[in-house]
Design brief:
alpha+beta; Maf protein; elongated
């Protein structure tokens, strides 16, 4: 894994889906190299049309969780697959996945406990279903792998569209 050094600031009036797809494409292009299949991705939690990024600090994480508690929100992930040809040209295939997550009502005690675990510190929307934050999700409509990390169905489709057979790659079983 190699992080891409790109500006992740949303553009004025940028739609959340367009935002995550743009970032995924920029990340994939930034680290593309000959002979490699590069996957770029970016995920946002969206509530009432607002992109909820990673929390600035634990107080911000708690405030975000208070907003999410007892409500549904959208998780949207942009995915891009970049392949560089022999001439150095980079071809990018991209798409997105969207899921809806319903969070149970959260008491102040639950929020304080969760924030103290440190798990919210680097998570878009201040929670992660793959850990203790999974206790809060009442329902997920759509791809669970989208909410937990990388939407595998979307990735598979994009690789296929880019001419990349995941099953024939070294290390695939």
């Amino acid at each position: 894994m190699r992080p891409a050094d790109i500006d992740e600031t949303p553009r004025p009036f940028e739609d959340p889906t367009a935002y995550v797809v743009r970032l995924a494409e920029e990340k994939a292009r930034a680290v593309a190299e000959h002979g490699a299949v590069v996957i770029g991705a970016d995920t946002s939690v969206v509530l009432d049309g607002e992109i909820l990024g990673k929390p600035r600090d634990r107080a911000d994480a708690a405030a975000t969780l208070r907003r999410l508690g007892g409500r549904g929100h959208t998780v949207v992930t942009g995915v891009a697959v970049a392949v560089m040809d022999d001439s150095g040209a980079v071809r990018v295939t991209s798409g997105h996945e969207q899921s809806t997550v319903e969070i149970d009502p959260l008491s102040d005690e639950m929020i304080e406990w969760y924030v103290a675990t440190g798990e919210a510190d680097d998570k878009a929307g201040s929670y992660g279903l793959q850990g203790a934050g999974g206790l809060f999700a009442d329902r997920v409509d759509g791809s669970v792998s989208n909410v937990i990390g990388l939407p595998m169905g979307c990735l598979h489709r994009l690789c296929r569209d880019a001419g990349v057979d995941l099953l024939s790659r070294p290390g695939a079983s």
